Protein: 6-phosphogluconolactonase
Amino acid sequence: MKITYCKDYQNMSQKAAQIIFDEVMHKKDLLFCAATGNSPTGMYAEMAKNKAAFSEMRVVKMDEWGIIPLSYPDSCESYLEKHLLGPLEIPSDRYTSFDTASEKVQEECIRMQKFIQESGPFDICILGLGKNGHIAFNEPADSLEPDFHKAILAPSTIQHDPALSQGEEPAYGLCVGMRDILQSKKIIFLVTGKGKEAAIRQIMEGKITTQCPASFLWLHPNTDCLIVE
Ligand SMILES: O=C1O[C@H](COP(=O)(O)O)[C@@H](O)[C@H](O)[C@H]1O
Structure:
């Protein structure tokens, strides 16, 4: 993992977007696995300044909250529409998504895994860091899931979106698994935001542990980790 310290969020966003511009020059129809949250928002805005570069890029939604409708403004779907798909004018035939309604969970996980097997690996995977060291919704645990799966969310993840704690079911999410993250040709790991100091310290120890899923990025040969100082 190559670590680059950035002087501020804007600087991180610009550097990350530049990496993506360089990649899309070589492969216009690259398969892009898109994270949501605050970390990539500035990078998507930078990408939108040169949207012509993305006229063939294909996008896959990385994760989604399980107990809020896709139409809800805080869903990952709405976020991607607002910050990535809309501004870059990515049409629906170049966007692969999934529904998290409870009766569909099993079939959606199977469908997404089949899609990744047939169309993958991802050319670029964007990741943010959870306060507890998670990536996507791969939460700290004794073992990690390789495939696209339903994940029971940790309390710190649920608190990320207060609407989630109002649900009656245990909050869950659907997300891409660790194998497909680690098989991505390139990973851009954006580390910014309050409350992540302990997770950053754990990553920087350089040890691999399922209790800090982000630590597995040390095993990946082409990860750019951009950290706001
Ligand atoms: O819970 C989550 O948090 C991380 C980080 O979010 P951010 O708002 O600080 O960028 C996010 O990358 C992840 O997808 C989500 O599960």
About this structure: The longest helix spans residues 9-26.
